[in-house]
Amino acid sequence: MIYLDSAATSLLKPSAVEYAMAEALRSMASPGRGGHVPAMLAAETVFRCREKAAELFHMERPDHVVFTMNATHALNLAIASLAIYGKNAVVSGFEHNAVTRPLHALGCSVKVAGRKLFEPEDSIKAFQEALTGADFAVCTVVSNAFGYILPYREIAALCRKSGVPLILDASQAAGILDLDFDDLGVAFMAMPGHKGLLGPQGTGILLCRENAQPLLFGGSGSESRLPIMPDDLPERLEAGTHNVCGIAGLMAGIESVLSQSPAAIFHHEHVLLRLAIEELREANCELFTKEGAQQAGVLSLRSQNIDCETLASRLNEHHICARSGLHCAPLAHESAGTLETGTLRLSFSPYLRERELREACRVLRQVLSTPLS
To answer: Which are the contacts of 87, defined by CB distance < 8 A and separation ≥ 6?
Structure first.
């Protein structure tokens, strides 16, 4: 099998992730739910994972690392926390449904800023104009559909200057780009554990500047006499029993990212991206890339002769895993002009090898050149 769908989930993970999860299942109870050894071991593991995440994202306060079920959960927490102060939101033209649907559900007025793919100046200019009168903003760091690295640093600076709180969606960037939370000065940064951080599904992280508003209410392991959630982070946002096994696996994934470094991982995936572009340049398809553009290890394409779902199905017959469709990001496809067709998306990981990608591209070229029967 050749796995080219890491933008959805990093299927290939360090062996330490599996070991850490199994060890947690055997030896750990719930943090904050007792002073016995299994409970204390769980508490220590959860705290050490916060410390590792704070180290990776250059945060001074590990207690402002909040564990969530996934990036969608984290984004819902962040958006709901800011929307109580005002409903006027600015978003980039490349947001995921995990951003647009919560905004819609909360009745927010949404202004879309920057619709040109691989043109950062357009995004910067559009945000600069759109921030007037905005209550908060949301921007993805990397488009999950196209790999476009938005000018998130410049957008963060514009938001700071305008006094507009910013939520960064780092779903496709965490573990791949060197993100400095404290330096960026954003209100929140959300991410999953199961993509670039190489952890298991069912884990996510929300980095918080200040206290946020909880979505769930219940046991927190502290301040049990209070009828409301505690004021302090992370307890305020972490109601109920933690996913201790998942967090243990996430810590192992983050440790692997730290040992390799995001810069080295990005370089590896960028080499693969350039290789895929070169291998498919003469193929019978449209590649969504641009010379000199800031692009992560994601390459979308489409063919005039074969729809993207059929392409993915034909690749699957050769044990090649790729994703087709809109990738839960219709706004991004609307911006790129691919809303009606979707794309076939190839996405890479630290564990994908050049020989595997060359073989996948060879098969894809063959499929693209073979008429449908």
So the answer is: 106, 107, 108, 109, 135
